[in-house]
Amino acid sequence: MSRKLTNVEKDKIYWGTLALMLPPEGIKKRYPTEEGSRARLSEVRWPDGPQCPRCSGADVKQIQKRDEFACRRCRKQFSLTSGTPLHGTRISLLWWLRGAERIIEDQYSSPIGWNMTVQTFAKFLGVSYRSGFKARHRLLNDMRDGGPGFFRSLVCTEKVNLPDHVIPNSTDHLKWLFQVQTERVNERFEAEKQNRASVE
Ligand SMILES: [Zn+2]
């Protein structure tokens, strides 16, 4: 018989599942440029091509820069980021994606009360303490269980298939996640070792 999970364990399952949905090679390798990150945003936001945020029209022309558009029906001008949580932020999309990955991995792997500090996160993003604080809050609030999940949908590119014999939200589920994560960390470590060996 499987016992009931504590809230902390349920939380670990939630974040651990998101961690498994991250690109296995890491966000930095999957989306190494701002351009690549924007292409990802575009494919998630507009899977059928750019759409007007005002009238939902799809008859849209590109203006000037590549990710600015004008609606031919209602004349509204908009950009790839307008109307998203990225609007008006000074942090580039590239770093938002890296930040989202970092938060997910930290939420999953840190023991209770040992999450990375705002200082560490701000340093990682290369921004001030204040901006780091705001970015962390924005990411956590978006990606938490039941949150809107805008950033989650950008960085969680993979599907996770729980094996049939594992009961969802059980202690076995937790064990399974831990095992798969460990394998993944080892794989990455091996890949890096081989990479280094081939450079030397
Ligand atoms: Zn329109």
Key features of this structure:
mainly alpha; binds zinc ion; globular; 3-stranded antiparallel sheet; 200 residues
Description:
With 200 residues, the chain is mostly helical. The chain has a domain at 7-34 and 92-199. Helices cover 53% and strands 6% of the residues. The protein contains eight helices and three strands; from the N terminus they run αααβββααααα. The protein has a three-stranded antiparallel β-sheet with strand order 1-2-3, with no helix packed on it. The longest helix is centred in the C-terminal third of the chain and has 29 residues, at 171-199. Bound molecules: zinc ion (ZN). Residues 52, 54-55, 57, 71, 73-74, 76 line the site of zinc ion.
Helices, strands, pairings?
Elements: H1 7-21, H2 27-30, H3 34-45, E1 60-63, E2 68-71, E3 77-79, H4 93-109, H5 118-125, H6 129-143, H7 150-155, H8 171-199
Helix pairs in contact: 1-4, 1-8, 4-6, 5-6
The structure holds zinc ion.
